[in-house]
Amino acid sequence: MPDLTLSIRFLRGVGEKRAQAFARLGIFTVEDLLFFFPRRYEDRRTLTPLGDLRPDTFSAVVAEVASLSARPAGYRSGPFSISLIDGIQTVRAVWFNNPRLELQLRPGMRLALYGRVEYRGGLQLTNPEFEVLEGDEVETASVGRIVPVYPLAAPLSQRWTRRLVGTVLASYGGGLTDFLPDSLRRRHGMKTLPDAVRELHCPEDRNSWLRARNRLAFDELFLLQIGLLLRRRTYAASGYAVPIRPGRKFQALMGPGLPFVPTGAQRRAVAEILGDMNSKTPMNRLLQGDVGSGKTFVASAAILAAADSGVQSVFMAPTEILAQQHYFNLKGMLRSQGIETVLLTGGQRAAERRSVEEAIRGGSAQVVVGTHAVFGDEVSFARLGLVIVDEQHRFGVLQKNSLMAKASAPHVLVMTATPIPRTLVLSIYGDLEVSVLGELPPGRTPIRTVRMSAGMEKTLLDLVREHIRRGRQVYWVCPLIEDEEQGEPRAVVSRFGRLSSVLPEARIAMLHGRLSMGEKENIMRGFSEGKTDLLVATVVIEVGLDVPNATVMIVEDAGRFGLAQLHQLRGRVGRGRAEGVCILLEGRETSPDGRARIETMLRTSSGFDLAEEDLKQRGPGEVCGIRQHGVTDFRVADLVRDRKLLSLARDEARRLLETDPWLESAPLLKEELDKRLGRALKLAGTA
After folding, report:
1. CATH code matching the domain that covers 46-144, chosen among 3.30.9.10, 2.60.120.10, 3.40.630.10, 2.40.50.140
2. Average pLDDT value for residue range 321-330
């Protein structure tokens, strides 16, 4: 059996420099090279006679070198040309910056060439790729077939890499072990793994390539679904949770006396969560809802049920200011039922923290609202039964695991205001049950979104003055802290200076990531309490500020931001009774992609629709911040176009695990799962 773990350094012709280049591409072994697939292909199956060449096309030809032209005197790397003849027609081939060609080519040689045809005083092939043919054979050349183009790094060349991959496929490709169960592969008419890998490197035609590509994409999605389902089962079997059931306190606050009518989505989410918690199997649920959809209300219902059942709840928030907001809201609501709520943050004084920690340890604190401070080893719970994590992607996975380790098997609810496309829910959060808040509470006014150009400053300043005169507050978000060059202000520091000079009557503050934690908290608190009229900031305010009095969001150079960020920023205003307006300033050098994102924001208000667009534009790792986990670093699969394959993979994963819960009948599959995703699946997600 060929050794697929062999270092590519030991392959003939690789050497130290090429091995280092491959290492930069993440290729270290023979197996890595087998799964190093082309980024695109060139169809060179049709050989064009020289007499049929046409300008502005790419063509493959076979011809003989008729003569060589000398380079201009003193230009070792100047243009070098040859005359080609195929027995009927003569055409030039010209190369630039290739000083070794006169050592490789000579009259009488037969060449296979592929390149761009141009008209420069006559037809010519410009910088064509070529191979010297031996005898009459063309089959081994990079013409007359579909040719792979790899994403390479210097000093690797396409021609040399194709030869190496071809050699490795012939010598090692047959040693690939097909880990898919035979019954599954035959049921869907899938190629074997060695055949699929070979076809992706050297495709015969589009249909054959598509079958191979779908087989390899299915492998990646299927392994991920198996892993996520196994992890869900492991968490469910991690211990017996305390069943949580609503009682008197829940009915007092969530019953007929509720001062507003919950949306249908809120009622469904509460019912799903209560159903999960009324079990000895620990809940593991994701609650996702657009900005302002009422996630905090749903979380409050879960906390009340936990208090009725005599267990403690912890509510995690990513910033101190957001934790304080949750704390004051929950404390005001729960006080009437005798439920003690405490706040634990890193900014508290030592004596205050010790007092809070003692209340948590003794059990008198039934609800704990906190930041990262709750993760500390000195924090222990008397009877922790419910863990709620707000904006869960802001926390490290190991931190969340350490929090859940403070109880034997707590019920877990993670929440996000970043809408997640369904394909990502299945592929990234597949080990969680999902509740969706897809509608806004009645009375919420849609936020008006407006585009302005950088030259409309007077109009913009008049609007800001008017809102401040009415007692409203304004955000002004910039993409940079300091400007990279002189010109129009686009950064927080220069924009703050400019606004301070033209709006002397306004109370203006500046907020960015280089400030200390204490400074940031004081500035955000001042804005929350209405002591600041205009907050000039970076995206640090994307999550963590709930200021109902803020009515204007201005985003400087908006094309530089992603759709999800723009939507989160837009959601910071219009949270009270007054209409909110979001102004997207288009910079003078906005890219076409940036303009497209602004157009999308103007016509779309739904966070879920925007999330789908963001997934198409930026990819899953950028949208959800999970690329560092290695979960969606697919070689072949694409979560945008492979939705049907993803659903098939999920169905097949469930089918297999129903009959073989621990993959005892599929040891090769189990081994491949551990090799590809063992480490990543221990780190990603919440379990």
Report:
1. 2.40.50.140
2. 84
The CATH number assigned to the domain with range 448-604 reads: 3.40.50.300
**DSSP bridge pairs for 119:** 123
- How many whole angstroms separate alpha carbon 627 and alpha carbon 362? 40
Residue recorded with tokens 């999330």:
611
The helices-and-strands tally (H runs, E runs) of the chain is 23, 20
Cα-based distances in Å from 373 to 318, 346, 350, 487: 11, 5, 12, 43
Contact yes or no for 317/326 (Cβ under 8 A): yes
Residue 462 CA, chain-centre distance (Å), reads: 39
pLDDT digits (tens, 9 = 90+) for 441-453: 666 677 899 999 8
In 3D space, the residue among 109, 410, 30 whose CA is nearest the CA of residue 240 turns out to be 410
d(Cα 300, Cα 514) in Å, to the nearest integer?
A: 34
CA 53 to chain centre: 45
Start-to-end CA span in the chain (Å): 38
Query: Could you give the percent of the chain with pLDDT greater than 70?
Result: 86
DSSP code for 85: E
Q: Cα separations (Å) of 129 from 35, 84, 164, 460, 471?
A: 25, 14, 17, 56, 69
3-state SS class at 533: coil
Q: Residue 306 and residue 303: Cα distance in Å, rounded?
A: 5
Who contacts 475 (Cβ-Cβ below 8 Å, separation ≥6)? 534, 535, 537, 541, 550, 552, 553, 554, 569, 572, 573
CA-closest candidate to residue 353, choices 335, 332, 368: 368
Rg for the chain (alpha carbons), in Å? 31
Instruction: Judge whether 370 and 323 are in contact, CB under 8 Å.
Output: yes
Concatenated DSSP letters of 419-485: ---HHHHHHHSTTSEEEEE-SPPTTPPPPEEEEEETT-HHHHHHHHHHHHHTT-EEEEE-SBSS-SS
pTM of the model: 0.66
Q: Do domains 46-144 and 448-604 have the same CATH topology?
A: no
Q: CB pairs under 8 A, 24+ apart, for 136-140? A: 138/47, 138/62, 138/112
> Among 22-26, 155-159, 399-403, where is mean pLDDT lowest?
399-403
Q: Measuring CA to CA, which residue among 676, 537, 640, 618 is closest to residue 222?
A: 676
Q: How far apart are CA 275 and CA 91, in angstroms?
A: 77
Q: How large is the average pLDDT for residues 319-333? A: 84
Domain ranges of the chain: 46-144, 448-604
**Beta-carbon neighbour count of residue 226 at 10 Å?**
26
